[in-house]
Amino acid sequence: MMSKMIRWPKIGDLIIQKSDRKKYMGIVYEEKKGRVFIEWSDGQIPPDYWRANGYLAMNIHNLYATFDIIKTHV
Questions:
Q1: Domain spans of the chain?
Q2: Cα angle value 43/60/45 (rounded, 5°)
Q3: Which residues, including other chains, have CB under 8 Å from residue 41's CB and lie 6 or more apart?
Q4: CB 36 within 8 A of CB 46
Q5: DSSP letter at 50?
Q6: Cβ density class 42-62: b for 16+ within 10 Å, e for less
Q7: What pLDDT does 5 receive?
Q8: How far is CA 50 from the centre of its chain?
Q9: What ranges in 1-74 are assigned the alpha helix state H?
Q10: N or C: which end of the chain has fewer CB within 10 A?
Q11: Tell me: the pLDDT tens digits for 35-48?
């Protein structure tokens, strides 16, 4: 049985966000109060990402069609 937390983003995980018909890739570098902060590759930042607020971890966990999570540890 797979843990429900396997989709919970942690520091070091690769996040792939699909929006605007584009894919944005980045690494989670900080977790704080249920939010995750991502360093995006190639300076490409999704239009709905605010550096000061990051993303709610719960949204990344729940939005299967928008976010892929590549775990760097299990």
A1: 4-70
A2: 15
A3: 24, 25, 26, 27
A4: no
A5: B
A6: eeebbeebeeeebbebeebbe
A7: 65
A8: 13
A9: 57-62
A10: N
A11: 999 999 988 999 99
